Amino acid sequence: MKNGTDSFVSLGHWPSAGSFGFNTDILATNPINLSVVIGVLIFFGKGVLSDLLDNRKQRILNTIRNSEELREGAIEQLEKARARLRKVEMEADQYRVNGYSDIERQKSNLINSTYKTLEQLENYKNETIQFEQQRAINQVRQRVFQQALQGALGTLNSCLNNELHLRTISANIDMLGAMKEITD
């Protein structure tokens, strides 16, 4: 290592400028070559490197600007979405309240119509009971009348003899004839 540093530091070991040849000492030639190449690159590549860095800087700044614009747009859309969400929530609450009141109103209407229907059924039941009672009373009257008539006919038939029977029939015929003359 000492030889490499010595050859780099001291110029005495360098071949003279008149001769051209290859230096096979890698440690001595690499730092020199690198410093020459870096120097040339800095001198000639300074403008190109500067332009590349400026272009890169502009692209980064444009990307940041675009990102900021997109961020602002996203924030704006988020606020609009939140406003729509609040509006939809308010509408949902309104529908819920209206739905509950509508359900209560329908429930009340159903209860009222059920009471009316029950009242009508009660009235129909009472009318049917009265009708059936009246019909039963009329049937009993008819049976009593028929039995009384049969009893009276039985009594008349047993009490009447033929002569009395013929007189009653002729009296009834005379009455019917008189009624017919009155009506004509």
From TrEMBL:
GO molecular function, one term: proton transmembrane transporter activity
Membrane topology field: Single-pass membrane protein
Keyword Nucleotide-binding applies: no
Highest taxon, organism lineage: Eukaryota
Gene Ontology biological process terms, A to Z: proton motive force-driven ATP synthesis
Localization per record: Membrane
Major localisation: membrane
GO cellular component annotations of the record: proton-transporting ATP synthase complex
TM annotation in the entry: 32-49
Keyword Transmembrane: yes
Residues in coiled coil: 64-98
Assigned keywords, A-Z: ATP synthesis, CF(0), Coiled coil, Hydrogen ion transport, Ion transport, Membrane, Plastid, Transmembrane, Transmembrane helix, Transport
InterPro entries named among the record's database cross-references: ATP_synth_b/b'su_bac/chlpt
Record family assignment: Belongs to the ATPase B chain family.
Free-text function comment from the UniProt entry: F(1)F(0) ATP synthase produces ATP from ADP in the presence of a proton or sodium gradient. F-type ATPases consist of two structural domains, F(1) containing the extramembraneous catalytic core and F(0) containing the membrane proton channel, linked together by a central stalk and a peripheral stalk. During catalysis, ATP synthesis in the catalytic domain of F(1) is coupled via a rotary mechanism of the central stalk subunits to proton translocation.
PANTHER family: ATP SYNTHASE SUBUNIT B, CHLOROPLASTIC
Name of the featured protein: ATP synthase CF0 B subunit
